[in-house]
Amino acid sequence: MKILSGHPVVEHLFTALETPVAQLRAQGIVPCLALIRVGADPAAQSYARTIQNRFAKAQVAVQIVDFPTDVQPTIVVQAIKQLNQDTAVHGIMVLQPLPSQLAVAQLAEVIAPAKDVDSISRLNQAANYFDIESGFYPCTAEAVMALLDYYQINLAGQRVTVVGKSMVVGKPVALALMNRDATVTVAHKLTLDLQQTCQNADVIVACAGVPNLIDETMVHAGQVIIDVGINRVNGRLVGDVDWPAIHPIVAAATPVPGGVGTITTSILLKHTVQSAWLQQPSAQPLIIE
Questions:
Q1: Rounded (10°) angle between helices 139-150 and 7-26
Q2: Per-residue pLDDT for 28 more than 90?
Q3: How many C-alpha atoms does 167 have within 13 Å on its Cβ side?
Q4: Is 134's pLDDT higher than 70?
Q5: Which parts of 54-207 are beta strand (E)?
Q6: Which end of the chain has fewer CB atoms at under 10 Å, N or C?
Q7: Are 265 and 50 in contact (CB under 8 A)?
Q8: pLDDT classification of 123: cutoffs 50, 70, 90
Q9: How much is the average pLDDT of 24-34?
């Protein structure tokens, strides 16, 4: 079985971003991402550190905007509006989970679409649906596509089963796959014939958030398995795919950790740089392949 590691994809993206970042910095523009963080959730804290480390290596700035857990929604909304107007900030991202008084949808609609680098606003989601080249694609969904592209996985005419229907991964990755002429089936953890649905696929994208959901009974020889799941079980990270069970059977698969999740933060970096690039007068969109 071929292991589809995310690390070479990250290195490729970093290399591709070196020149545009240097050109921006030469003009006095330092690409900057603002992270909205509410409370001290351990997962959010860890993800913020990962983003800071990755961005620092690329000489891209991260501004963390912290709020206490009991902050009023109006205060966070006002802060986002100020970031929208700040020309030194090129991307805005809301770290999750959020406390109960804050709704992601409420904050998403306040973020300027040009700075919505994780595509959580309705305007950017609509652009994705209609395959309009404006705004940004959700980072994890784009990470899946970047990995498939890097390893030259053929999609045209292939049967792809996406196991998961979230707005963050399942739905946008299904749209992206259809835009590449794949024949896409969207299933989820409650799909009655999930085993057969997966067996029928040439490619499986597992993003249901259920540890080890995809096992040896759902795969066959020659398949490509993209595991997007990040689940903590007994103190260790596992995906939505039972790796030891499918390893002897399928043609290729992504590991967890070290697969799609490794790429996601680099896509966020890419979007931040692209947003900063568009700040230049008469700038054309920056295409990073």
A1: 110
A2: yes
A3: 11
A4: no
A5: 61-67, 91-94, 159-163, 183-187, 203-206
A6: C
A7: yes
A8: confident
A9: 95
Two tokens at 63?
């501004």
| CA quadruple 121, 122, 128, 132: dihedral sign | negative
pLDDT score recorded for residue 229 = 95
Give pTM, 2 decimals: 0.94
Confidence of residue 245 (pLDDT cuts 50, 70, 90): very high
C-alpha–C-alpha distance, residues 222 and 228, integer Å: 19
What is the number of other CB atoms lying within 10 angstroms of the CB of residue 133? 7
Question: What tokens appear for 129 in the block?
Answer: 């649906």
Peptide bond before 257: cis, by omega within 30 degrees of 0? yes
Amino acid letter, 220: H
- Distance of alpha carbon 92 from alpha carbon 229, whole angstroms: 24
- Return the number of other C-beta atoms located less than 10 Å from residue 97's C-beta: 12
* Of 230, 217, 221, 224, residue with least CA distance to 263: 230
State in Å, rounded, how far the first CA of the chain is from the last one.
26
Structure token digits, residue 86: 């700040």
Bridge partners (DSSP) listed for residue 233: 236
In degrees, rounded to 5, the angle at the alpha carbon of residue 269 between the alpha carbons of residues 266 and 270 is 90
CB 172 within 8 A of CB 137: yes
Tokens of 121: 């606003």
Q: Tokens 């996601």 map to which residue?
A: 264
CA 86/CA 19 separation, integer angstroms:
24
pLDDT digits 0-9 by tens, 140-199: 999 999 999 999 999 999 999 999 999 889 999 999 999 999 999 999 999 999 999 999
